[in-house]
Write a structure and sequence with these properties.
This protein is α/β, with parallel strands linked by helices and 350 residues long. The chain contains 13 helices and 14 strands. The strands form 3 sheets. The chain has a 7-stranded mixed β-sheet with strand order 7-10-6-11-14-13-12. The protein binds NADP nicotinamide-adenine-dinucleotide phosphate.
Length: 350
């Protein structure tokens, strides 16, 4: 009998759901025993119902799993990974938490709630303690832990390294976001080919607020957000996977480019997150070529879990500028959620 923890993927047929199925194949701690979708597919075998769009083949074990309805009554399980649309997640995730299941969610529905952490294990592992507060306040036996919006992910890892060493005053961010970030089938090809779409609904607000919560301090059961300001422009571009963000940053304490490079290259996750199966080594990869990072060439660095930084240089308005890349459906979604679950399990919350 397997000693791995039984888990389910909610919304397993979508863009992020498929990544979960791919990344959980042969996972050392978790074994997928159930997959869910919308009701229109319930009861159908995953292999027949899911239009698989990843380059690796669908794992054999997944093909024969019959899609379950997305309700806790149908799944008595300690851990679920949620890749549900936000409106559905808002309704069903608390039902799972109430029923004793830990929900590691990609949806934005609960990220702003004071007692629900937005967790990045290499940044704010200590915020996982908010699960105790949820249990106390809401009477849940399980809990909800979210991972950040996929555009906030890489830039928050970089900002954490800079904040710790120099302090951060202002951030100006311009994103170039992949089409897989809009789910499947996502943006119509007639809209995105030969084009840039300079609007992604709700995205700028998320990029301007989520990093501040993640970089905040947990004090007396609440998070005091970091006090600097972020201005964001978010754009959809004709790239399949990998979100690129151009950052200009004003620091509190002035530093040379060499000092900044040193801080980024040597950044380490908190001890409790360093040796988990999904931990990227190193968390930040600094490239010195003039034309990197590029999504097609660099998004799979560290199995898609590393944050790749390049074009580090002086900024004539702020202090420094750089380009940050991270894989949106791996580090920014499924891989990030799995890393969160590994951390929660090692801390005894699952
Ligand atoms: N894509 C990214 O890069 C990314 C990154 C970070 C976070 N996220 C977030 O992750 C979540 C999933 O995103 P996605 O891009 O994977 O979306 P998606 O491709 O549209 O997939 C949505 C999934 O939810 C299922 N679903 C839809 N309506 C449902 C219902 N009423 N009940 C139960 N299941 C239902 C779908 O099943 P059917 O196939 O049966 O419709 C599908 O499996 C979203 O909240 C998104 O904002 C996405």
């Amino acid at each position: 009998m397997s000693s791995r923890l039984p888990v389910a993927v909610l919304g397993a047929t979508g863009s992020v759901g498929q990544r979960f199925v791919q990344l959980l194949d042969q996972h050392p701690l978790f074994e997928v025993v159930a997959l869910t979708s919308s009701d229109r597919r319930s009861g159908q075998p995953y292999g027949e119902s899911c239009r698989w769009v990843l380059t690796d083949p669908m794992p054999e074990w997944a093909k024969t799993i019959r899609l379950s309805p997305t309700t806790p009554e149908d799944l008595h399980i300690p851990l679920v990974f949620s890749a549900l649309p936000a409106d559905i997640a808002r309704e069903v995730e608390p039902q799972f938490a109430q029923a004793g299941t830990m929900v590691c969610s990609n949806a934005s529905s609960y990220r702003r709630e004071a007692d629900i952490p937005i967790l990045l294990p290499e940044v704010n592992a200590d915020h996982a303690r908010l699960v105790e507060i949820q249990r106390r306040k809401r009477g849940w036996r399980g809990g909800i832990v979210t991972n950040p919006n996929c555009t906030s992910t890489g830039m928050t890892v970089v900002l954490k390294a800079l904040l710790d060493s120099f302090g951060v005053q202002k951030v100006f961010a311009v994103s170039m976001q992949a089409i897989s970030g809009a789910g499947y089938p996502g943006v119509p090809s007639m809209d995105i080919l030969d084009n840039v779409i300079p609007y992604i609904g709700g995205e700028e607000e998320k990029v301007e607020t989520e990093p501040l919560k993640m970089l905040g301090a947990l004090q007396h059961d609440t998070i005091q957000p970091a006090s600097f300001v972020i201005s964001a422009h978010t754009n959809r571009v004709a790239v399949s996977d990998g979100h690129t963000v151009c950052l200009s940053i004003e620091l509190v304490k002035k530093a040379s480019l060499d000092e900044i490079a040193q801080v980024l290259q040597t950044y380490q996750a908190p001890t409790e997150s360093q040796n988990l199966p999904s931990a990227p080594h190193p968390p930040i990869i600094l490239r010195d070529e003039a034309d990197r990072p590029q999504p097609r060439l660099d998004r799979m660095s560290g199995k898609g879990m590393s944050t790749v930084v390049g074009r580090l240089r002086k900024d004539p308005i702020y202090d420094i500028k750089m380009v940050v890349l991270s894989h949106n459906t791996i580090r920014g979604a499924a891989g990030g959620s799995i890393y969160n679950a590994e951390l929660l399990r090692s801390m005894g919350f699952i």
